[in-house]
Amino acid sequence: MSIGILLAAMVQTVNVSGGVEVEKMPQIGIATRHARCIVRRIGVAPRDEGARQAAIDTAVRDCRAYVESDFAQGRVQRGDRLVSGRWWKGMQRTLDAIERDVAEAIVTPKQYKIIWQLPDGGRVDVYNAPGVLTSVRLLTVPL
């Protein structure tokens, strides 16, 4: 293998987040919307590290308030039933992991997006999976 191909492969993976594994349909939808909210709220990440961190913190806070208000107002359901407080506590741990992962992935002044890594290792744009999913890994990648 040539050094050029090896370097190109390394560069492609440098700016991809470690990702967060999410299982089951209700969690996949909530987690995906939350991650997308954060990266969309940030837009193009500022060049200055302090400004970039401030933008990330603001986006995380605003998006978390939004998803928490959905739960508080009874808009989070599994099928046709409202989720329990116990179920929501588990979801909050997933949201915390997503917030950390997105914040760690945004390291350059670029715009980012969320993609899904499928159980077979393939990567697709969000909601473009070839079939019904039982789990995905949410990845934050630069555009």
Descriptive report:
- This protein is an alpha+beta fold.
- The protein contains four helices and six strands; from the N terminus they run αβααββαβββ.
- A four-stranded antiparallel sheet has the order 1-6-4-5. A two-stranded antiparallel sheet has the order 2-3.
Q: What key phrases describe this protein's structure?
A:
single chain, 143 residues, alpha+beta, 4-stranded antiparallel beta sheet, two-stranded antiparallel ribbon, 52% helix, globular
Sheet-strand content, in percent, reads: 15-25%
Structural class: alpha+beta
Count of helix runs: 4
Order of helices and strands: HEHHEEHEEE
Count the E strands: 6
Range of helix content: 40-55%
Averaged pLDDT:
89
Shape: globular
Radius of gyration, taken over Cα atoms and rounded to an integer in Å: 16 Å
End-to-end Cα distance, whole Å, is 27 Å
Major sheet description:
4 strands, antiparallel
What ranges have pLDDT less than 50 throughout 5 or more consecutive residues? 1-14
- Order of strands across the widest beta sheet? 1-6-4-5
Q: Which oligomeric form is depicted?
A: single chain
